[in-house]
Fold these 2 entries.
Entry 1:
Amino acid sequence: MMGAVRAPVVTLWLILSSGCTLRGTDYLQSGIGCVPPLADCDGDGSCETNLADTAAHCGACGYACDGISCKDGSCLLDTLEGMLVWQIDIDDQHAYLTCEPPRIAYVPLNGGGHWDNFHVQLSAGLFGIYVDDAFVWWVSQAFDAMDQQFPALFRKPRGAAGADAEEKWRGAAMTEVVAGGVTGSGVTIAWSYGSDLVISEVAGALKAELPMSRAVATGEPSVTGLSTNPQFDILWATFDGDLTRWPLGVDLATGRERPFDVVFADVNEAYFVEFGGGEMPPAPNGRLGRIGWENPPQGPVPAEELVTDLAEPVALVLDNSHVYFSESSIESDVPGSIKRFDRASSTVETLARAESPDDVVGDLDMHGETLAWWVLRAGETPVVEVWKRSKNAYTLPP
């Protein structure tokens, strides 16, 4: 049997320098590696797997779509027709989405099923959602015995069916409720409604009411992003341009261009995205930024702009090595995308891209290796696609 043919170094250099490309198998046998999306997933020394459309190896070797389609290295989990989606949060089994008409839909991450109702809201006022190891949390409106509505923090065991397992804790009495956001750190839950912020300690077993809830801020402009950490700190962004930290109530950054989300990286470091926009005609001018401060912070600190000219970014998540963020492209005439920023090298790579500039890429979340997000497809009837992808997947061309 004839052995593998290895291209001489000079011949290989001539081919590469001429601008020609070798097939994936030739690249691997030449010691260069496979050309994405081709990969050697069975370890036989050839680039036999196309990560772009192989359901068992979608985006990365061993990352499976489990019975659902793989397209461009991402798994299409499900399609929601006739609904709009606001936020998404995931655990190891499901993606939970807050929708309009008001409901929480949950979609299996591992294929084999379609979306179902986790919670149905009879009236408006459902936006933020957060999933921890045991519960799904959300902020919505509720009604008392006098049929007066008030904001409430809800929780329900993950994967539970029906409303019997739901618990709620009342916020301040209001006649009109603006749905808010919610996030947590494992021992605390930070939640907002309208212009009010509340922090609640939730460690321990189920109780009739939260061990402690206290108002953090009232009368704030519209809160667009929330983050908390185990030290009971809260960091929030407002659409008028401030990034503020509690318990001292110190503005860490002011005058930003519509910050939309913010996430703690450490007790004295955070990343944020700002929507930008406002230009006519619309042009991508959003940003990914970073702020660091002394503990305790004394006041506004310079913000480091890491990536500029983004198409209206709206959400971010991070791990020890990267920041992952979504470009919504709500206003810009470019396709929205999911990108990652390398915290060490400052390089930016594209993991997924919408098919059309008219599509809107929305919120995203991460659990383990999985990134999940939604895309609103352009058309007369709302159609929302829910996607997942390995955070270690191959990257797309710029």
Entry 2:
Amino acid sequence: MKQQIGNVRLKAARQHAGFASQQAFAHALNRAAPRLGLGHIEISARQVRRWESADPPWPRADYQKVLQRVLNRTIEELGFTPPWAVATSGLQAATAASRALAEKRGPATLRVSTTGDMAQPATAAGDYAMITSAYRRLYATVAPAPMHDALQEHTKMGTHLISETSGVSQQILAEALAEALLLLGRIEFFDLQRPGDAERTYRLCRPLAMPTTLCSGLRSLPTQRSFPAG
């Protein structure tokens, strides 16, 4: 049986940067995040081990930024393979999700373009993903009602952007939109006590590509939230 080697690129870059242990590297990433405007993040040695495994998960957007800055390498140079590089049904999934969103949001919602035309620059997908990450961090401190309204508008914008992109950009947007919808459904179910709305929102997530890391990241959101009353 052939032994799996692991992500030697990340391990080599970590050691070359002077981080002998995975724990020391995790601490360095956590310390660097605030300086990059990412706020407080918690990367553990266990997460680093997963990244250095034979099948490393694709890091979320804020983790990518801190990894690239600390090690001075692109995310691909660190041995990570984007999920859209191996996906075979991403466009069909995005199309189905957009049609479902159109039914829920009304006629103003655009459908996915299947012509391959791009009306948005390539940076739009990454920008949308970063905003989605910011909403995830704000969840701990913003009251449910205004958070819900803002996030709902964010998902509408994501649907419009998907209709104006194609290829890799559309894959990135599909994942970020799925994450935004999952967070929206969480607020509806747990915070606003609206299980019917949450169920309809969760149904919209199913056609979209959702990596395991995305789902586990949402499960790790704080259950105790501190936001101003009223």
